Amino acid sequence: xxPDSIDVVVRASDYYHFVTTTMLAVGAxxxxxxxxxxxxxxxxxxxxxxRSGRRIAYVLMVVLAALLPTADPVSLAIEIVPxxxxxxxxxxxxxxxxxxxxxxxxxxxx
Length: 110
Hints:
Helix 1 (12-41) packs parallel to helix 4. The chain has helices spanning 12-41, 47-52, 54-67, 73-109. The protein is built from four helices and no strands. It is mostly helical. The chain is elongated, with a radius of gyration of 21 Å.
């Protein structure tokens, strides 16, 4: 059924490059919330600032996901969804840090 003229040749170097690039990008993406939490902890970022910059962050996430080795729009969507989820979770984490700091300040002032 398949024509005999189609030969699939997979080179190990191309495969290793793809896997390495993907693993490094995913690892960097999963470190992103830690960076945001650290910046929130030292007072550089606030929940309001993260929420107001949500649209810009989403555009940057789409650009980042498009730069990753993707083959089709479905793969692109699969890469974007975790980035958005991690961003939203980092907003919740920064908010939890702010509330804890507010409680500490209230206890110290009381």
